[in-house]
Design a protein that fits this description.
The protein has one domain: Orthogonal Bundle (ABC transporter involved in vitamin B12 uptake, BtuC). The chain is globular and about 55 Å long. It is mainly α and 326 residues long. The protein is 75% helix and 1% strand. It has a two-stranded antiparallel sheet.
Length: 326
């Protein structure tokens, strides 16, 4: 019984995010003119997956008690780069995908090195690096353009067996290949320990620097995967500053909606994914209820404010900070 109570306490945020998404999606499909069809599910999945990858990237940094304000710009940079490289023969396309992912890893590693070894605040460091990444993206694509291997794009944005969105399968594969091994590794536990109590973790001999560095590096990789999928969805690259900022802010909202503590040491990327899908469904609900599109930023801003406030309200009830991690 105690094990179930402990499991529920640990997964409470993820389960709440799942419940919010399910309720919102049911309302959306119930009021959609076409109902719940394969096309409706595919469109919703494709839009949600983009934010889900960026939210996963943000989660890795947030659990170390940091904030990465460059994830949106890595997302945009890799989108622009992919529109140059992920074309041609299968071998050329594979090479382009590898280069794009390596660039994402490099961007994350630079963030981690500056924060850990340069001893700068994560917000300050990632604002600066984000500006650099966007500048490079602008050099690559001063105007929207480019292309992508259409066969690969169609395979990863279409449907399997006529019903299952391929993007969701890809998202599940990334969870199993990136998040699960990291969260169960020594470095993953070190990242959580850094967010819980960095001093106590250091005194216990936890490899804090390597854990935090791995978290930032993998965050860059996940943002790059999101940039790849943006290229697959749009068949083009665009250095859109507003889009990069929006994905960064929305990733923070998705992280908090998913039960990840902005104070670090608590939460899961899976919860952030459900938070991302729930946040994405807001725009769909406005569409089916025929709200003026000009209202959408207002509603998203309100949800962002409420989501960020939830973590603070929960912390107000804690008398001792250690209780937050108990």
């Amino acid at each position: 019984m105690n094990e179930w109570r402990y499991w529920f306490a640990e997964q409470k945020g993820t389960l709440l995010a799942l419940a919010i998404f399910v309720v919102m999606f049911v309302i959306y499909t119930s009021n959609h003119p076409a109902g719940l069809t394969a096309n409706v599910a595919q469109t919703a999945a494709n839009k949600g997956v983009l934010l889900a990858f960026v939210a996963m990237a943000q989660t890795l940094v947030v659990i170390t008690a940091g904030i990465d304000l460059s994830v949106g710009m890595i997302f945009i940079l890799t989108n622009c780069l992919a529109s140059w490289l992920v074309v041609g023969t299968p071998a050329e396309t594979a090479f382009g995908v590898v280069v794009v992912l390596l660039v994402g890893l490099l961007c994350g590693a630079i963030n981690g090195a500056i924060v850990i070894y340069g001893r700068l605040q994560p917000i300050v460091a990632t604002i600066a690096t984000g500006a650099v990444y966007f500048g490079i993206a602008l050099l690559l694509r001063p105007f929207p353009g480019g292309s992508v291997n259409e066969d690969l794009a169609d395979a990863l944005t279409g449907r399997l067996f006529g019903y299952v969105p391929s993007s969701l399968v890809a998202l599940l594969a990334v969870i199993m290949l990136v998040w699960v091994p990291f969260s169960r590794s020594v470095y993953g536990r070190a990242a959580y320990a850094a967010g819980s109590s960095e001093v106590a973790a250091y005194m216990s001999g936890v490899p804090l620097k390597r854990g935090k560095f791995m978290a930032y590096t993998l965050a860059g990789l996940l943002a790059a995967i999101g940039g790849l999928f943006l290229t697959f969805f749009t068949y083009t690259g665009e250095a859109a500053y507003a889009s990069g900022n929006a994905y960064t802010l929305f990733s923070i909202a998705a992280v908090v909606l998913g039960g990840v503590s902005l104070f670090g040491g608590r939460g899961s990327a899976v919860g952030a994914i459900f938070g991302a899908f729930a946040f994405r469904t807001i725009g769909d609900l406005l569409f089916v209820f025929d709200f003026d599109p000009l209202w959408q930023p207002l509603f998203q801003g309100v949800v962002l404010l409420v989501a960020v406030s939830l973590g603070a309200f929960a912390l107000f009830r804690v008398k001792n900070r250690l209780e937050w991690f108990g």
